[in-house]
Amino acid sequence: MAGDNPEAQYIAGGTNLIDLMKRGVTSPAKLIDINHLPLRKIEHRNDRVRIGALALNSDVAEHRLIQTRQPLLAQALLAGASGQLRNMATVGGNLLQRTRCSYFYDLALPCNKRKPGSGCGAEEGINRTHAIFFAGNGFGGIEKSSCLAVHPSDMCVALTALETTVVVNGPDGERRVMMKDFHRLTTQQPELDTNLRPGELITAIEVEDNAFARHSHYLKVRDRASYAFALVSVAAALQIDGGKIWDARMALGGVAHKPWRYWAVDLMLRGQAPSEKLFREVAEHEMKSAKATEQNAFKIRLTSNAIVAALKLAAGIS
Ligand code: SF4
């Protein structure tokens, strides 16, 4: 177990870790290959879909259970990476993806995430793709120890909207972590992306049954049509009956250090008839707390428009 050696790391698909090692961003003293573990099963059990951590992204996206019960997750997986990468990447690895901030990958430049206390190259550098939402809305004078990077995973945005549980196992046994608590915002320790404890291994994720399958949509806005990370993404899930919305969930990608859960969306939409006017009000409400860097003010309008578009697509209105 990696808990015996703090310098050790688990490896499965290796689609991000090998890249980080080649560039010298990370250099674990020991790699523990976990591909032989029986963690690939995708099944429906006790009112939830349980997906083993070693299930491949492509297998999850194409699985009948996911396509019929959790289509938002299938859409997000198909929006991420290339077919080749999806055939290698695992669900557990997807949860642990590191940011694609270019300063993080360039050893010659300062980066608090790679080398805590060295500064943030993006703060006064190229920050067009960086965050617009921060811990406690505290941006505006970025703390010296902090980080403006965004979380890169599409899958995690859908999982956050769906209030997924992450099952982990470690030296202290099994524990279950809600997606909202799995990744971290940065005010301190930007080198840490998650709240995993030393030696812990993700073993599965669980998505509870819900009534969103007929009205959900994952919208990804990016600079080019394929193999690009999101400038902004929206996972929107609605339960609509009798012409009214009875439940709503939303998470945003490409806007914060972790998938950004839009908590007020349910309160604002519940009991209302879907309309573009209503969705615009919802979008603009959340954007009031967004803070742009020098180069990414465009993301505030872009995110607002993406929220409206995703909600319209989920609701099936033109
Ligand atoms: Fe490093 Fe984060 Fe700053 Fe990028 S935004 S340079 S990852 S500290």
Automatic annotation (TrEMBL):
Keywords: FAD, Flavoprotein. It holds the Pfam family CO_deh_flav_C. PROSITE patterns: FAD_PCMH. Coiled coil: none annotated. One of its GO terms (molecular function) is FAD binding. It comes from the Bacteria. InterPro entries: CO_DH_flav_C (IPR005107), CO_DH_flav_C_dom_sf (IPR036683), Diverse_Substr_Oxidored (IPR051312), FAD-bd_PCMH (IPR016166), FAD-bd_PCMH-like_sf (IPR036318), FAD-bd_PCMH_sub1 (IPR016167), FAD-bd_PCMH_sub2 (IPR016169), Mopterin_DH_FAD-bd (IPR002346). Residues 1-212 form the FAD-binding PCMH-type domain. This is Molybdopterin dehydrogenase FAD-binding.
